[in-house]
Specification:
One of its GO terms (molecular function) is adenylyltransferase activity. By secondary structure, this protein is α/β, with parallel strands linked by helices. Helix content is 37%, strand content 21%.
Length: 650
């Protein structure tokens, strides 16, 4: 049980010269700083922040990829009562735009950044009409290059448990980034729950490549280690991206016991490993590997554990968990030391308030989900319907949380608070799930659900189905539903990472659309090649960015180009159509969207759903009453075959 009431208390009590942070910079390069030295470095930085005019209650955006600089400044803020606001530097304009939006929200905001990043912000502002905003930012920005560690000490602010410790802005890029306000009490409560749920002890050693701007990186793999008096190792995220095998090499050499990664990290490592072997690697020290931050891929868990079992990685190390920034971090944990468990449900019974139907894993309609476990200490979970009424066990609904670890709201954002805060301390997470035997199973994000044919479909499920194509990899396809006002369904748009010729993509697009149609009955309205899949710094796919780009017309030219390629292919194959074939083809094309149907194309192979086929039948029946029965379309499955059948009857 942690006895601290604030984070300041935690580092002050554990400023131990024998507990260290190893900042890993390469296979043979690292910097080691003890907790004792961190304490003194933070007070030195605090002196310089206070000299620059910052005082308790002011907010400071920390904008750097340098882990040492980040942590020094973060703790300086805590000691001075300054509110740190971590913001990911990233590599895209989306990240720079986010910084400007966050700065404009702050009551009395400052920023600390490297000179190079300040220059990039200036260039971005110049080309995006934000010069005035940049001037405001620049006037309150401190360059990291001007910060030096010396013997001067800042004045420590007396913190209380209900004081704001820091603000965690959402990692996604939206028009209105939401700042989760976390108090010292929120954080200490959740750190204690994590420590107990994971059975941490002072001999544990953590190793993480997660960004410190993400709750798992900062809270789960830095603050938790300070509070539990554990040594920790940090790999820069961009270094892991370039050299993923370093992750397990350092795990072995450091004898790390606690690791973490979302799906994409495990996949990235396995792709880099390929058929290679790891020399002199022993992973027997690892006892926990957190897996969270996005829907957990059961197949990927199994592949990773199987691939690394020859190196001593045990199957009971995979720790499938659920959490989010609004809960500080952790919401549900399984029992540590047990093998991860999976549950299989019918994909057609996944709507709000549906009672889940459990089926065999080999059933064609089986959806697999990892079991995330029971709520952690001091955190409550309930499942509710759209009217905020609590649902029974094994019933799908909104996941809500409550407890002293849960935020009381978003920073100066009344609209977000009205949406998420449901009353009496409960917060709607925005996730859908259900409770089974008291354990939580998360099935997706409410906002990502695709509605079609009266059912809900989940992007990650459709993306997993697309993986059946040999050219599609995890993280290289994005499914997104876009609601059109005149339609009673969502448009289904597939985005595929592709950088080769457009003619080749047209073939791939048809094949992927066919696979999804065969498995689900859904028709893809458009399959679009993209040169990048936008993700957060923790690897979570940002589907909405691609959806917004589609709505803004940024893919219109490529869609037209694909339509032309398909039309040319269609003309070549249909030059010798009979009058009946031409007539039937016109009927089919009047119903179909995004599908060019040749007279020899099989209806089902082309990705036509049974509902769309019923529409086609209705139009045929309107023109030729009682000539064609709906079941005839299942027997005569091409325009050519159907035309021949009709000619015999007419």
């Amino acid at each position: 049980m942690l006895e601290f009431t604030t984070l300041i208390d935690a580092l002050t009590a554990n400023k131990n010269p024998n507990r260290t942070i190893s900042y890993i910079e390469g296979i043979d390069s690292e910097t080691e700083i003890s907790y004792f030295d961190l304490y003194n470095r933070a007070l030195s930085v605090l002196h310089q922040l206070q000299t620059n005019g910052l005082k308790a209650g002011d907010e400071l955006i920390i904008f750097t990829k340098d882990n040492i600089a980040f942590i020094d400044v973060f703790w300086a803020c805590l000691f001075g009562g300054i509110v740190p606001v971590p913001v990911a530097v990233g590599i895209s304009d989306e990240h720079r735009s986010k910084l400007f939006k966050i700065f404009q929200k702050l009551s009395n905001g400052y920023c600390i950044a490297n000179d190079d990043d300040i220059e990039r912000l200036a260039n971005y502002a110049k080309t995006n009409g934000l010069s005035s905003s940049f001037n405001d930012l620049k006037a309150k920005t401190i360059a990291f290059e001007k910060i030096e560690i010396n013997s001067n000490k800042g004045e420590i602010h007396q913190a209380h448990e209900n004081d704001v410790a820091f603000i965690q802005f959402s990692s996604g890029s939206t028009s209105d980034p939401k700042g989760v306000v976390l108090t010292h009490k929120n954080i200490i409560t959740n750190l204690n729950a994590i420590a107990q749920g994971a059975a941490y002890n002072e001999n544990d050693i953590s190793l993480s490549w997660m960004p410190l701007t993400h709750d798992m990186g900062l809270i789960g793999f830095h603050l938790n280690m300070i509070a539990c008096n554990m040594s920790q190792c940090l790999i820069p995220t961009d270094l892991f991206s370039r050299r993923p095998l370093l992750w397990m090499q350092k795990t072995s050499s450091k004898k790390a016991t606690v690791l973490c990664s979302p799906n994409f990290g495990y996949k990235h490592f396995l792709k880099a490993l390929g058929d290679k072997t790891l020399d002199n690697i022993n992973l027997s020290s690892v006892r926990l590997m957190y897996n969270g931050a996005e829907p957990i891929s059961v197949d990927l868990c199994d592949e990773f554990l199987t691939k690394l079992s020859p190196y001593g990685l045990k199957r009971n190390t995979m720790f499938t968990v659920y959490g989010l920034a609004e809960a500080t971090l952790a919401v549900a944990f399984p029992i540590h030391g047990q093998q991860y468990r999976t549950i299989y449900i019918d994909r057609h019974q996944c709507r709000m308030a549906d009672k889940v139907v459990f089926i065999d894993k080999d059933h064609e309609d089986a959806l697999s989900f990892a079991i995330e476990g029971k709520p952690v200490l001091d955190c409550q979970v309930k499942i509710t319907d759209e009217n905020n009424s609590t649902l029974a066990a094994d019933t799908i609904g909104d996941v809500q949380i409550k407890g002293p670890n849960v935020t009381q709201g978003y920073y100066l954002n009344e609209q977000a608070n009205m949406t998420a805060l449901t009353g009496d301390g409960w917060v709607n997470t925005g996730d859908l799930g259900f409770l089974h035997d008291g354990e939580l199973i998360i099935i997706g994000r409410t906002k990502d659900i695709i509605f079609a044919h009266g059912q809900n479909y989940y992007p990650h499920d459709l993306e997993n189905i697309a993986l059946q194509h040999k050219l599609i990899e995890l993280g290289k396809i994005v499914c997104y539903g876009i609601r059109q006002d005149k339609e009673q369904r969502d448009e289904l748009i597939l985005f595929i990472l592709y950088r080769k010729d457009i003619e080749g993509f047209a073939v791939l697009a048809r094949e992927v659309a066919k696979i999804i149609n065969e498995q689900t009955g859904l028709e893809a309205d458009h399959v679009i090649p993209v040169k990048r899949i936008p993700k957060t710094t923790s690897g979570k796919v940002q589907r909405r960015i691609l959806g917004d780009e589609y709505l803004n017309g940024e893919f219109d030219a490529i869609i037209s180009q694909l339509d032309a390629i398909n039309a040319a292919s269609h003309v070549a194959l249909n030059e010798d159509m009979t009058a009946r074939e031409k007539e039937l083809k016109e009927i089919c094309q009047s119903v179909l969207k995004g599908i060019v149907l040749n007279i020899n194309d099989n209806f089902f192979d082309a990705g036509i759903s049974s509902l769309t086929l019923a529409e086609i039948h209705q139009k045929i029946d309107d023109k030729y009453p009682d000539v064609v029965d709906i079941i005839d379309l299942f027997e005569y499955q091409t325009i050519k075959e159907l035309a021949t059948f009709m000619n015999e009857k007419l």
